[in-house]
Amino acid sequence: MDGGGAEGELTAQETALYDRQIRVWGVDAQKRLSKAHVLVCGMNGTTIEFCKNIVLAGVGSLSLIDDHMVTEDDLNANFLIPPDGSIYGGRSRAEVCCESLKDFNPMVRVSVEKGDPSLIDGEFLEKFDIVVVSGASLKTKLFINENCRKRSKRIAFYAIDCKDSCGEIFVDLQKHSYVQKKPGGETAQQELTYPSLQEAISVRWNNLPKKTAKLYFAMRVLENYELSEGRSPGETTLSDTAAVLSRRKDMCDKMSLSESQIPTALMERLLAAGKKEHPPVCAILGGILGQEVIKSISCKGDPIKNFFYFDAADGKGVMEDIPPPPPTAN
Amino acid sequence: MAAAASSEEAVKAAKVLMVGAGGIGCELLKTLALSGFSDIHIIDLDTIEVSNLNRQFLFRQSHVGQSKAKVARDAVLKFRPNINITPYHANVKDSKFNVEFFKQFNVVLNGLDNLDARRHVNRLCLAAEVPLVESGTTGFLGQVTVHVKGKTECYECQPKPVPKSYPVCTITSTPSKFVHCIVWAKDLLFAKLFGDRNQDNDLNVRSNDDSGSKTDVFERNVDEDLPQYAQRIYDHVFGYNIETALANEETWKNRKKPYPIYIRDALPEDAVQRNGSSRDHKNEEHEPSATVSLGLRNPQEIWSLADNSRVFLEALKLFFEKREKEIGNLIFDKDDQLAVEFVTAAANIRASSFGIPPHSLFEAKGVAGNIVHAVATTNAIIAGLIVIEAIKVLKGDYQNYRMTYCLEHPSRKMLLMPVEPFEPNKSCYVCSETPLVLEVNTKTTKLREVIDKVIKSKLGMNLPLVMVGATLVFEDGEGLEPDEAANYALNLEKVLAELPAPVVNDTKITVEDFQQELKCSINIKHRDEFDEEKEPDGMVLAGWSGPVDKQVNSNGDKRSVPSSSSADDIDSTAEDIPVKPGMKRKLNEILESQENFDALQNQSDVGSSSAQVVEDDDDDIVMLDEDPKQGKKKRLQ
């Protein structure tokens, strides 16, 4: 995107197809979109929603990574996989999804990249402007996030996960300057500096405002538990409740937070969810992420900084700005 | 409906009706199917267009022209082959979708694009006692609301804004914005040249000249060739009419004067000559297009005055050369390329007369066609929220019903903001039995006027029946005996006081629409005089909270020019976003960003309700409370 100017005109075909959305974000944004390259690691109901949205929006290219063979479990929230073993049998999630996504918009290049996300190196990432990771372990997310940050070119990093009725999006745009629309229509140039994922999960909890979303804390407990127990993401059940609650106590004690800030009922919901995704929540998360990526590429509009939470139980979609730990080490 | 124990059971057992298979509809059908719904009926009148494909993801280029409902069904069955989806390529207002039809469903989900159909579905849902989940989006904004008879307000409990209209004099004489020039070009000039000549038209309203009144200047003379005619029209509307208007010095005392534009100024002599014989061959295979003829290929480009003038002349010529048969019957359509070209050029030439910045064809088309912005992401989010709300409705979990707003800029950190629903408005004529009051001159007003201006247009009835006491004075619809029909036709032309059952002061009439199962009483108050400017209908309906037109006519001009085309090909209408009157005043205390609030509010009118944020320690619920003078609304619990 650097120097990715907006020269060149849209074709008549593009103008006709994208008419309604150009009226939302403008021609310049549409041209930038058509030059952006997006990588998605991990195909599930939530990332499929996101992929659909940005393919329709007309990004330049979309690459998918997910070598897992399609199983019946994948059909739950995924509308790109026909429920027919003779079609998906023996093929990877990325391959099957890629085929269906191509259909959505012939002007977007959709392709499959093979490999293990936990080994994605910096050079490979260089090809992309946007990287989205889902269903990955904390270790993998941190690894990819750090690699994105090491490149000379700016690569926007997003992590997104749906746990049944709850969802979390993490955003790291590093340094992001954009045009902010002010009330009354005038615009101003703004710049934001984001903490890395490592920083954003390292801040002491007692330094955060009391009203911080409970899901922020609950997701950290769950992540910490999965990591130390060697579980893959979502590989938990209600039988882990006692162990997870004791992990909650340890973490709360260490960070001086009252345990009541992480309700047991919420922890139980997340544990019971396992890998299950609730399709309406996938649609909401995938929609929000789609909008965020479009904002980031077009450099227009206030982006999320740096977490977003949705919980169908209260219906709220909330942003949290979690700062990095203070620079002076203690 | 019995409250089901678990979401899964409720969903599996549910029979749902979706109205609309457009932007929201495609997303909704997909999310319903994935969520386990297995008996879905879907109604949509429309066929697929190219400009749908950027967000209505169940459709492909090869489906253009086919029924949305049917194609959407086939697309979803590919990934959920074992569910039942019943499509109807039909208008939801069709009589086959009656109350009995609605009663078979556990919940109705709306993804509609117009106020008229929304009101109709609302009434059928009330009559059939089926819960309704209503929705709409515009750009990045959207909302989902829940309407359950007796528990929450109905869709019509709050006034709905009507399409914008502009005072006639602003359009004919004193435009100050580009949109005024568009309305002039589309509703006056285009209509005058290509539409029904006999219709009233205010195009010449300011030229009080006698010279032009003998012959219609817009009529083409027998011996006039097309280029001559086009240039004469040009000089008349952009030159002569402006000169005439300038003569009225009073108008320009506090305004910047326009300058007249004649073709000889706008185009060098040779261009005028050449224009008549442009490269016609390019127009052979395709729809006639002035921009194709003239090589102006970029719809984003802002044309010079000379280019606008060329497009104007060329488009006018092409209408007469290639589409002569349609002249006299044309109505502006945003999908008619030549019409959009003509209107863009005419609006831009007029704009330059008045010192208003010109706009590109693309922008002008948006303004002229009332095109509402639409993106896939908002529709996907809104569809997700609809399903979440529908599941609560199916479980009977009414304490947790929420109206949810999707915002562009966060308010109190929220991008998705849930709000508690309101209780029904006790004076709503649709969902309560409160009688309406109609002030009317019963000695001079014909029954037809009451039916057209009040019963059909304001109360939104399709096939009304009118009773005076026990006497049926009018009935609409099929299946009438010829003598009955003749009798009713006679009654239509009678004044109220002379009907077989006379309608005078204090008479109570009953109007009813069987299809909507909506019945309401109207108490008649006789009044002799009406203010022509303020009460142009010659009657006043009170106790009614329908569309409110609050256009201020600064010059006291009594009429206004409504923007003729209603918004279409969209997933909602902008004016449906505000939903709550008066969110303007109070919600802006909550919505930190003025812009959010402007966008949500842009057309809402009466400021009469207030919003409160209830903070119970860790759970924020935004509550909207109506103005005390309208009775305080309580939390729904």
From TrEMBL, chain A:
Protein name: Ubiquitin-like 1-activating enzyme E1A
Domain THIF-type NAD/FAD binding fold, first and last residues per copy: 18-319
Protein family per UniProt: Belongs to the ubiquitin-activating E1 family.
Pathway: Protein modification; protein sumoylation
SUPFAM superfamilies linked to this entry: Activating enzymes of the ubiquitin-like proteins
UniProt keyword list: Acetylation, Nucleus, Ubl conjugation pathway
Pfam families: ThiF (PF00899)
Keyword hit for Nucleus: yes
Keyword Ribonucleoprotein found: no
GO MF terms held by the record: SUMO activating enzyme activity
GO process annotations (BP): protein sumoylation
Cross-referenced InterPro entries: ThiF/MoeB/HesA, ThiF_NAD_FAD-bd, Ubiquitin-activating_enz, UBQ/SUMO-activ_enz_E1-like
Subunit comment: Heterodimer of SAE1A or SAE1B and SAE2. The complex binds SUMO proteins via SAE2.
Native source organism of the sequence: Panicum hallii var. hallii
Subcellular location: Nucleus
GO cellular component: cytoplasm; SUMO activating enzyme complex
UniProtKB/TrEMBL annotation, chain B:
Top-level taxonomic group: Eukaryota
Domain THIF-type NAD/FAD binding fold: 8-428
Pathway: Protein modification; protein sumoylation
Region (Disordered): 272-291, 529-637
Entry GO CC: cytoplasm; SUMO activating enzyme complex
GO molecular-function terms, A-Z: ATP binding; metal ion binding; SUMO activating enzyme activity; transferase activity
Extent of the signal sequence: none
Domain Ubiquitin-activating enzyme SCCH: 265-365
Basic and acidic residues composition-biased segments: 277-288
Entry annotation: catalytic residues: 169 (glycyl thioester intermediate)
Keywords from the UniProt entry: ATP-binding, Metal-binding, Nucleotide-binding, Nucleus, Transferase, Ubl conjugation pathway, Zinc
Ligand binding (Zn(2+)): 154, 157, 428, 431
Main localization (coarse): nucleus
Record's keyword annotation contains Cytoplasm: no
Protein known as: SUMO-activating enzyme subunit
